[in-house]
Amino acid sequence: xxTSANFxxxxxxFPTMMNKLVFVRSVWANNLEYEFSLIRSIIDRFPFVSMKKxxxxxxxxxxxxxxxxxxxxxIMRGHVNAIKLDQLGIMIIDASGNLLxxxxxxxxxxxxxxxxxxxxxxxxxxxxxxLLHEHGFHFQRIRAHGIDTLRFDELMMASRLICNNDxxxxxxxxxxxxxxxxxxLTGRELPNVLPQFIMLMRVFFGDKVYDVKHVIIxxxxxxxxxxxVTN
Length: 231
What we know:
Blueprint: E1 14-15, E2 21-27, H1 32-42, E3 48-54, H2 69-82, E4 87-93, E5 106-113, H3 126-134, H4 139-145, H5 149-158, E6 168-171, H6 175-186, H7 194-205, E7 209-211, H8 212-215, H9 226-230
Parallel strand pairs: 2-5, 3-6, 6-7
Antiparallel strand pairs: 1-2, 3-4, 4-5
Helix pairs in contact: 1-5, 2-6
């Protein structure tokens, strides 16, 4: 099977606190099935999942200074329904906080590249697109070699990353991460009302969803004890 390096070189490995280099496995249409097979084979031993999405811009904004949950959801829903996802990062961790390493010199995370977003057709802000270009994001390559979200949906459903009571999700300010995934997994726009969205969250991701941005509110001496918070 050919590798994604034919299309876009992955970011260079970077060191971690455990003195292991982390290599980003760049996933495209041609290696999607293989990478999902790896995830299926290890999810029982690495049941903690962190996700981070990449989308081109924020086109729906609000003047609300203090959103209630319904207002907040409506703003996110309008944005997610209007924009296509272009990248999704997935990190899988074991109970001791170790990344997958296949007993080698490197640890690994995944970066899924979706072809659905077309910078010519869909709404965006020029500043956001320019920033992505500056960081090496190539929209033409993604359009040519990226993943079809319909195929991603099929493999995601079979991966045991979702609909799995043994998996926990660790995120930071996670609203958009789950919104986009639910839009892909259902193949339709987000529900009109917040309770229906919460129901879908529980169907796909269960009750083990932890948002670090919320959790740290309850950490003592947060501003003086950053290492404690990390641990």
